[in-house]
Amino acid sequence: GENVEQHPSTLSVQEGDSAVIKCTYSDSASNYFPWYKQELGKRPQLIIDIRSNVGEKKDQRIAVTLNKTAKHFSLHITETQPEDSAVYFCAASIWEYGNKLVFGAGTILRVKS
Amino acid sequence: NAGVTQTPKFRVLKTGQSMTLLCAQDMNHEYMYWYRQDPGMGLRLIHYSVGEGTTAKGEVPDGYNVSRLKKQNFLLGLESAAPSQTSVYFCASSYSSRERDEQYFGPGTRLTVT
Predict the structure, then answer these.
(1) Which of A24, A34, A39, B64 could form a disulfide with A72 if both were Cys (CB 3.0 to 4.6 A apart)?
(2) Is the CB of residue B112 less than 8 Å from the CB of residue B17?
């Protein structure tokens, strides 16, 4: 089955700097790649997603890139702010009858002000 | 709209006891999911449902059963709780359309099995 690895496990950046989190997946048939943000004690919330027919997607300060050949995708956060501090999870799935997500282990992002 | 709600928010069980977690959504979503989240790990899919009356196994289904008798509700049952089932359980739901498949999560249930 699908396996998703996420790096780094923790990331500390200075406010205003950029943060990059990378994920690799094992199943070349995967075609949907969402990113979730989870604040302490809260539910995961989708921040951006990308499908396999697109190489890059951007939404204000966040962007996701996908390299299907290398089977990896990355989350980029620019101009980080203290409120960006949270745990970020990547996931992958083969969209079919039931969108069964396989998650990475998460990255703790700390933005120091 | 309440979105996705979960009952209860917290629960402590003794080994061998049983319980049912309730997930409800008011967004008319076809798909519903149960995940567990353990420290240092991402969410793992337990069971899922693609419609009323249907259920299927996910990544870690052992020790759990589910039922979806109504479209808006998805129940997760533990017949004989074990300490290894101590976790935070999240329910999620989504539309069945590929273009509208964002999974919306409930607030979670923190379960401790002693």
Answers:
(1) A24
(2) no
Has residue A97 got a pLDDT over 80?
A: no
* Rounded CA separation A32/B59 (Å): 18
- Residue B100 phi/psi, 5-degree rounding, is -135, 55
pLDDT at B35 over 90: yes
* pLDDT tier for residue B40 given thresholds of 50, 70 and 90: confident
Name the nearest CA neighbour of B33 among B79, B64, B10, B9: B64
| Angular region, B84: left φ>0, alpha ψ -120 to 50, beta rest | alpha
Query: Given 3-state DSSP classes, what are the helix, strand and coil percentages for chain A, each rounded to the nearest 5?
Result: 5, 55, 40
Assess whether pLDDT exceeds 90 at residue A94: no
CB contact under 8 A, A44 and B101: no
Which residue has tokens 């419609």? Answer: B51
**Cβ(A110)–Cβ(A81) under 8 Å?**
no
**CB distance A72 to A104 below 8 Å:** no
Strands B10-13, B109-113: pairing is: parallel
Q: What single DSSP character describes residue A93?
A: B
Contact status of A5 with chain B (Cβ, < 8 Å): no
In terms of Cα–Cα distance, which of B106, B94, B72, B87 is closest to B19?
B87
Query: Which residues make Cβ contacts (< 8 Å) with residue A69, sequence separation at least 6?
Result: none
Within 8 A by CB and 6+ apart from B3, the residues are B25, B26, B27, B104, B106
